[in-house]
Design a protein that fits this description.
The structure holds two protein chains of two kinds. The N and C termini of chain A lie far apart (about 35 Å). Chain A is globular. By secondary structure, chain A is an all-beta fold. In chain A, the strands form three sheets. In chain A, strands 2, 4, 5, 6, 9, 12 and 13 form a seven-stranded mixed sheet that branches. A four-stranded antiparallel sheet of chain A has the order 1-3-8-7, with no helix packed on it. Chain A has a two-stranded antiparallel sheet with strand order 10-11. Chain A is built from no helices and 13 strands. Chain B is an all-beta fold. In chain B, the strands form two sheets. In chain B, strands 2, 4, 5, 9, 10 and 11 form a six-stranded mixed sheet that branches. A five-stranded antiparallel sheet of chain B has the order 1-3-8-7-6, with no helix packed on it. The chains are: A mainly beta, B mainly beta.
Chain lengths: ~120, ~110
Protein backbone atom coordinates (compact mmCIF):
# COMPACT_ATOMS: atom_id res chain seq x y z
CA UNK A 1 0.00 0.00 0.00
CA UNK A 2 1.51 3.31 -1.08
CA UNK A 3 2.28 5.87 1.57
CA UNK A 4 2.11 9.63 1.21
CA UNK A 5 3.68 10.68 -2.07
CA UNK A 6 5.39 14.01 -2.55
CA UNK A 7 6.94 15.59 -5.59
CA UNK A 8 9.42 16.80 -6.45
CA UNK A 9 11.85 15.32 -3.92
CA UNK A 10 14.34 18.10 -4.54
CA UNK A 11 13.81 21.57 -5.95
CA UNK A 12 16.42 24.21 -6.61
CA UNK A 13 15.15 27.54 -7.83
CA UNK A 14 16.11 31.17 -7.98
CA UNK A 15 14.69 33.90 -5.84
CA UNK A 16 11.51 35.32 -7.28
CA UNK A 17 10.44 32.15 -9.05
CA UNK A 18 7.21 30.33 -8.36
CA UNK A 19 7.50 26.97 -6.63
CA UNK A 20 4.77 24.33 -6.50
CA UNK A 21 5.02 21.33 -4.20
CA UNK A 22 2.66 18.41 -4.63
CA UNK A 23 1.24 15.80 -2.30
CA UNK A 24 -0.89 12.70 -2.68
CA UNK A 25 -2.23 11.51 0.69
CA UNK A 26 -2.87 7.92 1.64
CA UNK A 27 -6.10 6.71 0.09
CA UNK A 28 -8.97 6.95 2.55
CA UNK A 29 -7.33 9.54 4.76
CA UNK A 30 -9.43 12.65 5.12
CA UNK A 31 -6.95 14.98 6.80
CA UNK A 32 -3.88 16.49 5.20
CA UNK A 33 -1.14 18.58 6.74
CA UNK A 34 1.69 20.66 5.31
CA UNK A 35 4.79 21.18 7.47
CA UNK A 36 8.07 23.01 7.03
CA UNK A 37 11.26 21.90 8.77
CA UNK A 38 14.43 23.92 9.26
CA UNK A 39 17.32 23.58 11.65
CA UNK A 40 16.47 26.89 13.29
CA UNK A 41 12.71 26.49 13.71
CA UNK A 42 12.19 22.74 13.72
CA UNK A 43 8.97 21.28 12.34
CA UNK A 44 6.24 23.88 11.84
CA UNK A 45 2.65 23.19 10.86
CA UNK A 46 1.71 25.45 7.96
CA UNK A 47 -1.85 24.42 7.16
CA UNK A 48 -4.19 21.48 7.49
CA UNK A 49 -7.22 20.33 5.56
CA UNK A 50 -10.11 18.14 6.59
CA UNK A 51 -12.29 16.67 3.86
CA UNK A 52 -10.52 18.97 1.36
CA UNK A 53 -11.44 22.10 3.33
CA UNK A 54 -8.70 24.26 4.89
CA UNK A 55 -9.30 24.25 8.63
CA UNK A 56 -6.42 26.30 9.95
CA UNK A 57 -3.88 28.22 7.91
CA UNK A 58 -2.52 30.29 10.76
CA UNK A 59 0.89 28.70 10.30
CA UNK A 60 1.29 29.94 6.76
CA UNK A 61 4.12 32.46 7.05
CA UNK A 62 2.83 35.10 4.68
CA UNK A 63 0.75 35.79 1.60
CA UNK A 64 3.43 34.39 -0.66
CA UNK A 65 2.34 30.94 0.52
CA UNK A 66 -0.88 29.33 -0.61
CA UNK A 67 -2.25 25.79 -0.44
CA UNK A 68 -5.08 24.03 -2.19
CA UNK A 69 -6.74 20.67 -2.02
CA UNK A 70 -8.99 20.33 -5.07
CA UNK A 71 -9.86 16.71 -4.29
CA UNK A 72 -9.24 14.00 -1.72
CA UNK A 73 -6.18 12.67 -3.48
CA UNK A 74 -4.18 15.78 -4.27
CA UNK A 75 -2.86 18.92 -2.63
CA UNK A 76 -0.43 21.65 -3.61
CA UNK A 77 1.63 24.15 -1.68
CA UNK A 78 2.69 27.14 -3.73
CA UNK A 79 5.25 29.81 -2.97
CA UNK A 80 5.16 32.89 -5.18
CA UNK A 81 7.57 34.62 -5.26
CA UNK A 82 10.10 32.41 -3.51
CA UNK A 83 12.84 33.83 -1.27
CA UNK A 84 16.07 32.30 0.07
CA UNK A 85 14.58 32.13 3.58
CA UNK A 86 11.97 29.69 2.24
CA UNK A 87 14.69 27.08 1.86
CA UNK A 88 13.63 24.11 3.98
CA UNK A 89 12.25 20.60 3.83
CA UNK A 90 8.51 20.63 3.25
CA UNK A 91 6.58 17.62 4.48
CA UNK A 92 3.06 16.56 3.72
CA UNK A 93 1.27 14.23 6.12
CA UNK A 94 -2.12 12.59 6.15
CA UNK A 95 -4.25 10.97 8.80
CA UNK A 96 -7.64 9.46 9.35
CA UNK A 97 -8.91 10.96 12.59
CA UNK A 98 -11.58 9.25 14.63
CA UNK A 99 -14.61 11.25 15.66
CA UNK A 100 -15.28 11.00 19.33
CA UNK A 101 -18.72 12.54 19.38
CA UNK A 102 -17.28 15.48 21.23
CA UNK A 103 -16.83 19.00 19.96
CA UNK A 104 -13.40 18.37 18.56
CA UNK A 105 -11.91 15.50 16.59
CA UNK A 106 -8.98 13.60 18.03
CA UNK A 107 -5.90 13.55 15.91
CA UNK A 108 -4.80 10.11 14.86
CA UNK A 109 -1.42 8.98 13.65
CA UNK A 110 0.00 11.26 11.00
CA UNK A 111 1.83 9.54 8.15
CA UNK A 112 4.48 11.70 6.58
CA UNK A 113 5.68 11.76 3.02
CA UNK A 114 9.41 11.74 2.24
CA UNK A 115 9.48 15.53 1.96
CA UNK A 116 10.57 18.02 -0.66
CA UNK A 117 13.94 19.63 -0.07
CA UNK A 118 13.65 23.19 -1.39
CA UNK A 119 16.63 25.41 -2.01
CA UNK A 120 16.04 28.99 -3.12
CA UNK A 121 19.17 30.69 -4.38
CA UNK B 1 7.77 30.09 26.20
CA UNK B 2 7.45 27.45 23.49
CA UNK B 3 4.31 25.35 23.50
CA UNK B 4 6.33 22.13 23.49
CA UNK B 5 9.86 22.05 24.85
CA UNK B 6 12.46 19.32 24.71
CA UNK B 7 16.09 19.05 25.70
CA UNK B 8 17.86 19.16 22.31
CA UNK B 9 20.69 16.94 23.49
CA UNK B 10 22.56 15.29 21.99
CA UNK B 11 22.49 12.31 24.28
CA UNK B 12 25.51 10.08 23.71
CA UNK B 13 25.07 6.67 25.30
CA UNK B 14 26.72 3.25 24.96
CA UNK B 15 24.87 0.25 23.67
CA UNK B 16 22.78 -1.36 26.37
CA UNK B 17 22.28 1.82 28.33
CA UNK B 18 18.97 3.18 29.53
CA UNK B 19 18.16 6.72 28.44
CA UNK B 20 15.23 8.99 29.23
CA UNK B 21 13.91 12.07 27.47
CA UNK B 22 11.50 14.61 28.89
CA UNK B 23 9.14 16.97 27.18
CA UNK B 24 7.03 19.75 28.70
CA UNK B 25 3.96 21.37 27.21
CA UNK B 26 2.32 24.66 28.09
CA UNK B 27 -1.33 24.13 27.14
CA UNK B 28 -3.11 22.41 30.01
CA UNK B 29 -6.02 21.62 27.69
CA UNK B 30 -3.84 19.41 25.49
CA UNK B 31 -5.65 16.23 24.59
CA UNK B 32 -3.25 13.68 23.20
CA UNK B 33 0.43 13.06 23.08
CA UNK B 34 2.87 11.18 20.89
CA UNK B 35 6.51 10.36 20.40
CA UNK B 36 7.79 10.38 16.83
CA UNK B 37 11.17 9.28 15.61
CA UNK B 38 13.05 10.97 12.79
CA UNK B 39 16.15 9.52 11.19
CA UNK B 40 18.65 11.77 9.48
CA UNK B 41 17.22 13.24 6.26
CA UNK B 42 14.07 11.17 6.60
CA UNK B 43 10.48 11.89 7.51
CA UNK B 44 9.12 11.63 11.07
CA UNK B 45 7.43 8.36 11.94
CA UNK B 46 5.19 7.52 14.86
CA UNK B 47 7.03 5.69 17.61
CA UNK B 48 4.22 5.49 20.12
CA UNK B 49 1.16 7.31 21.38
CA UNK B 50 0.64 8.38 24.97
CA UNK B 51 -3.07 8.63 25.67
CA UNK B 52 -3.55 8.08 29.36
CA UNK B 53 -1.15 7.34 32.17
CA UNK B 54 1.43 5.94 29.79
CA UNK B 55 2.21 2.83 27.84
CA UNK B 56 4.97 0.41 27.01
CA UNK B 57 6.12 -1.09 23.73
CA UNK B 58 9.01 -3.48 24.08
CA UNK B 59 12.05 -1.50 25.18
CA UNK B 60 10.17 1.79 25.02
CA UNK B 61 8.04 3.26 27.79
CA UNK B 62 6.16 6.52 27.51
CA UNK B 63 4.66 8.29 30.50
CA UNK B 64 2.36 11.27 30.87
CA UNK B 65 2.07 13.53 33.89
CA UNK B 66 -0.84 15.87 33.32
CA UNK B 67 -0.45 17.66 36.65
CA UNK B 68 3.10 18.69 35.80
CA UNK B 69 2.44 18.85 32.06
CA UNK B 70 5.26 16.67 30.93
CA UNK B 71 5.80 13.51 28.92
CA UNK B 72 8.73 11.19 29.11
CA UNK B 73 10.21 8.49 26.92
CA UNK B 74 12.40 5.77 28.37
CA UNK B 75 14.51 3.54 26.17
CA UNK B 76 16.00 0.46 27.79
CA UNK B 77 18.85 -1.65 26.43
CA UNK B 78 19.74 0.91 23.75
CA UNK B 79 20.65 -0.38 20.29
CA UNK B 80 22.77 1.28 17.64
CA UNK B 81 19.62 1.48 15.53
CA UNK B 82 17.96 3.68 18.16
CA UNK B 83 20.18 6.57 17.07
CA UNK B 84 17.78 9.21 15.78
CA UNK B 85 15.96 12.38 16.76
CA UNK B 86 12.95 11.87 19.01
CA UNK B 87 10.11 14.35 18.62
CA UNK B 88 7.56 15.05 21.31
CA UNK B 89 4.17 15.84 19.79
CA UNK B 90 1.16 17.39 21.49
CA UNK B 91 -2.35 17.75 20.16
CA UNK B 92 -4.06 20.76 21.68
CA UNK B 93 -7.50 20.04 20.30
CA UNK B 94 -9.01 19.50 16.89
CA UNK B 95 -6.17 19.15 14.44
CA UNK B 96 -3.78 21.49 16.17
CA UNK B 97 -0.62 19.43 16.51
CA UNK B 98 2.57 20.90 17.88
CA UNK B 99 5.95 19.23 17.41
CA UNK B 100 8.83 19.76 19.78
CA UNK B 101 12.23 20.59 18.34
CA UNK B 102 13.44 17.07 19.03
CA UNK B 103 16.10 15.36 21.12
CA UNK B 104 19.03 13.80 19.33
CA UNK B 105 20.25 10.41 20.49
CA UNK B 106 23.52 8.76 19.51
CA UNK B 107 24.05 5.18 20.62
CA UNK B 108 27.65 4.03 20.35
CA UNK B 109 29.16 0.57 20.25
Amino acid sequence: DAGVIQSPRHEVTEMGQEVTLRCKPISGHNSLFWYRQTMMRGLELLIYFNNNVPIDDSGMPEDRFSAKMPNASFSTLKIQPSEPRDSAVYFCASSSPTTSGREFIEADTQYFGPGTRLTVL
Amino acid sequence: RKEVEQDPGPFNVPEGATVAFNCTYSNSASQSFFWYRQDCRKEPKLLMSVYSSGNEDGRFTAQLNRASQYISLLIRDSKLSDSATYLCVVNTGGFKTIFGAGTRLFVKA
